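Work package 3, deliverable 3.1, input record:
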Amino acid sequence: MAHAVHHITPKKTLIQVFIALIALTVLTVVTSRMDLGAYNILLALFIAFCKAMFVILIFMALRHDSRINAAVFALGSVIVVVFLLFTLIDTVFRGDLPNTVEGTIMEQEAADEAMRMRDPSREELDAGPGE
Amino acid sequence: MASTSVASAGHPGHLQHHFVSEEQQFDASKMGMWLFLVTEILLFSGMFVAYTVFRIWYPEVFAHSAELLDWRLGGLNTVVLLASSFTVALGVHYAQLDNKKGLVINLILTIVFATIFIVVKYFEYTGKFAHGVFPGINFQPHGVGGGHIYAEYDIPFAAQFFSIYFVMTGIHGLHVLVGMGLFAWLITRALRGHFTSSYYTPVELTGLYWHLVDIIWIFLFPLLYLI
């Protein structure tokens, strides 16, 4: 009774997916040995993504599974993307703002105030020669 | 587990009393497994984020350090792990068709592939350790081997690459070992005839776990060995 509703992936499909996965592995090795500049990384990640989708949809049978499991998996994946992007927003742009200084805004304002209160002429007198 | 309970008429022994049907029990178990797999993904994502951050900061160091990893061994392990995923999928297929022999053979093949993976990993690790390529503060590459002069890899932040490499592949390898134990357990249960087309939940769930371990490696291989 129960097995009637479970999707049974045909053996032929499993073999085809396995061959596709091996072919993609060969492809990623071959393309990684060519010089494609920045595209090397993008292509390798794209091929890895395709392989992962094959495994998830066919081997893990998410294609024929309950939609709630797909939602659980998709939610987890979204969280990973958020984790990665929000970390990179920090780390990638560190040091990109040249006009930043040490110290808090209040400390800077206090320093500016001190600068304004200074009497330059008095200082020059202090530094005068032959006192 | 549940298989020991008494089967009443129209109520299979493996069906726990708080479930309405076998189908509901199966779906609940499977959703629990998917939730667990998400936590596994999050565990590894922390390491993938660390990899990405350091790679963006020091792209040349990572590209240079990756040369020390042998893509042929990594490629072999990729093929081996894909093959093991295939045999697990076949095992579930046979379990669904009440083919005990097919299930057991494929579970054994899976353990064989997993063993090859671990053996290759062992030789990779010991090959690195022999030349002082350790994770953390003990990183001190020296000597000559495999066409590499190891001292050339003693550059700033190379240690970070290898720390990330060892931690990621190490925790992945730990998952492979756990999977092997689970498959051994499944084989003993399958031989005792515990699994039928109406009850093969442990095979299905362990299969899902194994496919996830495979997916992690699908990303680790290009990131660490190829680019």
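The longest helix of chain A spans residues 67-92.
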